[in-house]
Amino acid sequence: MKLFKFDKSNGKQISKFNSDFIMSRITQTTKAAHIGCMHLEENGIVGYHQAVSPQLLLIVSGEGLVRGEQEEYFKVEAGDAVSWNKGEWHETKTDTGLMAIVIESEELSPLMHMA
């Protein structure tokens, strides 16, 4: 499990085309990617299981706890990202609810785009 940030402080100012915004890069793939929005209500949980492919969890709102193969939980909140490798055991849970974007692809490489 690896933890990242994709909040404003990790973005880059974009001014091309007369634009004025900050872009936080996440990932790039050339192979198929499954992208979904996950909604965990109060006391929601994604049970402990093995990732079927490399996976990236992007917390958009709310907060929760994540773990990898160790029993140590890490707090996550909006702007945090977590990646798991294919086959890696993991779990996500929340007391108060959270919304997250989930990206799954055999070709995920967030280390190249996020710090």
Automatic annotation (TrEMBL):
Pfam families: Cupin_2 (PF07883)
Listed CDD domains: cupin_RmlC-like (cd02208)
Organism superkingdom: Bacteria
Domain Cupin type-2, chain residue ranges per copy: 39-96
Name of the molecule in the record: Cupin
Organism name: Planococcus rifietoensis
Lineage, broadest ranks: Bacteria, Bacillati, Bacillota, Bacilli, Bacillales
